[in-house]
Design a protein that fits this description.
single chain, 260 residues, D-Maltodextrin-Binding Protein, domain 2, eight-stranded mixed sheet, 9 helices
Length: 260
């Protein structure tokens, strides 16, 4: 009888919400090497998010969609067939997005720099040095520094659909430069451009922006404030333990710049 009561007590304890393993559902798009359905564990950003939540006893589920749909599902809090989505990764925090989402501490950070042709290299130190040039960007991204510069008519900011469109326009000399995060751009060039094409391209190490990519959780679900707190705590545990640095080192060791 004593053993039976003990088992009942244990089962009751582990069925209590404080002990229950919870799930969080997150949308994403294709953004290798940080995020991709084709990469191991969904890419380094997804792996960091999964491990941070796991520190707090929370399991993650990912749905990969075109970026616009990924954003909308997360903003509304629900997707097709009324499936519940808590949020999305990995996004830049903006005032407009903060109307709909709570943002985490950065998952990953990267340098946004300018890529140009060796035949017409962009050398610059201040934003004034960019006067008169055309710079390409992608539809799903935001470019706070360049957008402000374009508003002042110092540059022309031209938005294309995707990386393929951007690099084609650069190689055909329809734009002067591309603004991309360094790691993502080099990964794309290695995997999608020919050696002859990559040898035409160079880049400036001058920083356009230091980009901080975050988990954003929809304000449509009140429990997301709890999830956000749990994620930030789990992320800090990864950093304190050295695991976060280890994951970033693993990514860096796998990258091989095609422009060396």
């Amino acid at each position: 009888m004593g053993i039976f009561c003990l088992l009942v007590s244990l089962l009751s304890a582990f069925s209590h919400p404080a002990f229950a393993v919870k799930n969080i559902n997150l949308t994403s798009g294709e953004w290798p090497p940080y995020l991709s359905i084709d990469l191991a564990k969904g890419g380094i950003a997804a792996q960091i998010v999964s491990e941070a939540f796991a520190q707090q006893g929370i399991k993650t589920y990912y749905g990969y969609y075109p970026w616009k749909r990924s954003f909308e599902y997360a903003r509304r809090g629900f997707g097709a067939a009324n499936f519940r989505w808590h949020g999305s990764l990995a996004w830049i925090e903006t005032e407009q997005r903060k109307q709909h989402f709570w943002f985490s501490e950065p998952i990953v950070s990267d340098k946004e720099i300018l890529f140009s042709l060796k035949s017409n290299p962009i050398h610059w130190q201040t934003i004034e040095d960019l006067r008169g040039i055309s710079i390409g960007g992608t539809v799903a991204a935001v470019y706070p520094t360049l957008e402000k510069t374009a508003e002042k008519e110092l540059i022309s900011l031209e938005i294309a659909g995707d990386y393929q469109s951007l690099f084609k326009r650069l190689l055909y000399q329809r734009i002067d430069a591309i603004a991309l995060t360094k790691t993502v751009a080099l990964h794309y060039m290695t995997n999608h451009l020919s050696e002859a094409e990559t040898q035409q391209i160079t880049y400036s190490e001058t920083l356009v922006e230091q980009r901080h990519f975050r988990l954003m959780l929809s304000k449509k679900h009140s429990e997301n404030q709890h999830y956000l707190q749990q994620f930030n705590q789990g992320l800090q545990k990864l950093k304190t333990s050295g695991r976060y640095a280890e994951l970033l080192e693993q990514l860096e060791s796998r990258l091989d710049s095609p422009l060396n």
